[in-house]
Design a protein that fits this description.
Layout: H1 3-6, H2 24-36, E1 41-44, E2 63-67, H3 72-75, H4 84-87, H5 89-102, E3 105-108, H6 111-120, E4 131-133, H7 140-143, E5 159-164, H8 173-186, E6 191-196, H9 205-212, E7 219-223, H10 227-236, E8 239-242, H11 251-258, E9 263-266, H12 271-275, E10 280-282, H13 287-299, H14 301-316, H15 320-336
Length: about 325
């Protein structure tokens, strides 16, 4: 939301600060800004809190709520080897642990992610009651109108398999390419693979694998898509696959379901929580199993229709209004100590 939209509420004001979350200036200047404005509760939606505002064992005039979406670099140190967090991992780990010690309350996006956060940040059992899993919601743009799927396709029409996300190794995009190649051999109609997301030149392995398998002509890389473009892309797809080895939440699962697209995803981390019984779940390293699941959905119209109905219902239970209500409840609890 913009600063203008925030200011429409009578009890809300906003300010744009001239420094970024990860800058030294943020660490030095933000504590003074909080004191000057008599802030009673600070919610960081990013793990990088202003440490000087929240010293260890403080008497504490300002309550600190921190959302930590995941601790992937601490679980899989080689999951995204070219990322900034991996390159400065010792510092990142120290900052994460300090954030855990100095926060009055920690929020994470799923029960699976919260369990990993509390374990890797060494949160003692006595403090775990001050942690909470609060699910994300699906934007109104994906839910405000019924899905508009194309008419039934003929027996020889091309079906589209979709992947949405980044190219970091833990996302298992190479595995997705391999599973697509296997499914392509077993389907009685042609398939194309649409990879939606920003191209990351640090991780060329998936493109190289498509070329090695001789399927590069059947794989399209869209690059970055806006939310509106994503809505259209989900609706054109016959299936979303997401073989990620770890997700703190996995919003693309719900976005696809909201647009009437069946989902085959991993059975790891938060994904079973998010997908519920509305998707087919597979081991992310069982690529043959992933391919079989893909073929099942693409060739069985009854199964696909059942998954679409269940998916719409599942996605409908994840709203930002619910997220907001549960977050406000945390604010009250954090202030009470």
């Amino acid at each position: 939301a913009s600063e203008t939209s925030f200011n429409k509420a009578a009890n809300v004001s906003s300010a744009v600060l001239p420094y970024g979350v990860f800058t030294l200036r943020n660490q030095i200047a933000l504590p003074g800004f909080l004191r000057k404005n008599r802030v009673e509760l600070f919610h960081s939606t990013n793990y990088m809190i202003p440490l000087l505002a929240f010293p260890r064992n403080r008497l504490g005039n300002i309550a600190c709520v921190t959302t930590i979406h995941d601790v992937i670099p601490m679980i899989f140190p080689s999951a995204a080897p070219q990322s900034r967090k991996s390159r400065v991992y010792p510092l990142f780990k120290r900052l994460m642990i300090e954030t855990g010690r100095r926060s009055d309350f920690i929020i994470s996006d799923s029960a699976a992610s919260l369990a990993d956060v509390t374990r890797h940040l060494c949160i003692p059992d006595s403090r775990k009651r001050f942690t909470r899993a609060i699910y994300c919601g699906v934007s109104d743009l994906f839910t405000q109108q019924a899905p508009s799927k194309p008419a039934d396709k003929g027996p020889n029409a091309i079906r589209t398999v979709l992947y949405v996300g980044r190219m970091d190794p833990y996302k298992n995009l190479v595995g997705a390419v391999e599973a697509f190649a296997a499914a392509r051999k077993d389907c009685p109609f042609p398939l194309r693979f649409l990879v939606a997301g920003s191209i990351d030149s640090r991780y060329p392995e998936a493109k190289a694998r498509a070329m090695a398998l001789g399927i590069e002509q059947d794989v399209e890389w869209t690059g970055y898509l806006s939310d509106r473009e994503l809505v259209e892309t989900y609706e054109k797809a016959d299936l979303l696959i997401h073989p990620s080895r770890y997700e703190g939440f996995g919003l693309q699962i719900l976005e696809a379901m909201s647009r009437g697209t069946p989902v085959v995803c991993s059975n790891t981390s938060s994904l079973p929580e998010v997908a519920g019984n509305a998707a087919l779940l597979c081991d992310p390293d069982d690529l043959a199993g992933f391919a079989r699941a893909m073929v099942s959905v693409l060739t069985d119209a009854g199964l696909a229709e059942h998954m679409v109905r269940d998916g719409l219902k599942q996605a409908g239970s994840f709203t930002w209004a619910r997220t907001a209500e549960e977050t406000v409840a945390v604010y009250r609890e954090a202030r009470q100590g």
